[in-house]
Amino acid sequence: MSRVDFYSNAPDKLMLARQIAQKAYKQGLKILILSEDEEVLNELNTRLWSDVVTSFIPHCLASEPHAHCTPIVLGTNLGELPHRDLLINLNAHTPDFFEQFTRLIEIVSTDDADRLAARQRWSYYKQNNHPLTNHDMSK
């Protein structure tokens, strides 16, 4: 059963996704960062490349040929990737395949629509008995 962590009240979802991915990478995990919005993925890709040189995080878009052997992949779906350790969801809905992952991270901004969608996802996970934790980023 997947463990689900919510990071709520995030002032910058992409910055937090980068930080979480960096920490998970240092722990040796294979990570998929999921968004159906190509602009979000491209912005995160740019941020990961433009980070401090000493903290480079190896990553690529799922469409790239070496995605299967890159520790952090940014994509719109799981596809044929072997990444099953950590899923970072940037979508407003529950990913269909999240139970294939050991851990799921949901990042929620301060936007009202984003918070409402997150409440619905929280209810879904709770009803299906997934272990839930919330980390309030405003504190």
Automatic annotation (TrEMBL):
InterPro entries: DNA_pol3_chi, PolIII_chi_sf
GO molecular function, one term: DNA-directed DNA polymerase activity
SUPFAM superfamilies (alphabetical): DNA polymerase III chi subunit
Biological process annotations from GO: DNA replication; positive regulation of DNA-templated DNA replication initiation
Lineage top rank: taxon: Bacteria
UniProt name for this protein: DNA polymerase III subunit chi
Taxonomic path: Bacteria, Pseudomonadati, Pseudomonadota, Betaproteobacteria, Nitrosomonadales
